[in-house]
Amino acid sequence: MTAALMQTQNLRAFYGNTRVLHGIDFVLQPGGITTILGANGAGKTTALRAISGMVRTEGAIRFEGARIDGRKTEDVARRGIAHVPNGRGTIMQLTVHENLKLGAYTRSDKRGVAQDFELVFGYFPRLKERQGQQAGTLSGGEQQMLAISRALMMRPKLLLLDEPSFGLAPLVVQEIFSIMRSINKQQGVSMLLVEQNASLALDLADHAYLLETGNVVVSGTSRDIQQNPSVRRSYLGY
Ligand code: ATP
What we know:
The protein is built from 10 helices and 11 strands. The protein has 238 residues and is α/β, with parallel strands linked by helices. Strand 8 (158-162), helix 7 (170-187) and strand 9 (190-194) form a beta-alpha-beta unit. Helix 3 runs parallel beside helix 6 (140-152). It is globular, with a radius of gyration of 17 Å. Bound molecules: adenosine-5'-triphosphate. Residues 15, 20, 38, 40-46, 196 line the site of adenosine-5'-triphosphate.
């Protein structure tokens, strides 16, 4: 068994004095895709925000063996964790090119950055055509592509993705998920994916955690979770 890429132990997260995650143990393997499933308000977004240092936490978060809990968001990013937030986090007034350039702000290797522009344009050719266009005028699907691409410009080891399917037409979602799969396989970027659409997420991911009101209630391989009767009833609808 290889060493975990990321691991949380007894992770708790708070908004003010209110605790919304109650002691979560996640293990992410290098090169894997893990999904966090759960109903509205279960704590999925908070789990990603906890890893990124955006909410107050207790418990341990280890990335490549080193503690990252309590670190600033920027430090977490510099270590190789890129966060694609729900709502996408692109800067609407800036062009596609400017947004991508911002994604690489932590890097000083100009040649590598230039190569990575070509890399993301290879995955998302539509962004290449629209390099000079203001991000705010892109379609929803193109904005999601830009958000993922901007995160990739950091050359991350782990991508945190918060509901990339949100508000998009099924065909666009299929296209984006298929590209995410290619990026994972070809670039070895690990992913932690939050999704309401359980069926879609389980098709992409190799492992899954089901959250209910801030606790993990089921975890395992995606295949096992797909066959779990209560998950099928409540989240897969068959
Ligand atoms: P959804 O799928 O609806 O986005 P979620 O599983 O991502 O839900 P979270 O957004 O993590 O859930 O919310 C978990 C709990 O924390 C909820 O009870 C929510 O009301 C609460 N919460 C989220 N953000 C804040 C905040 N900024 N201040 C106070 N409470 C918050």
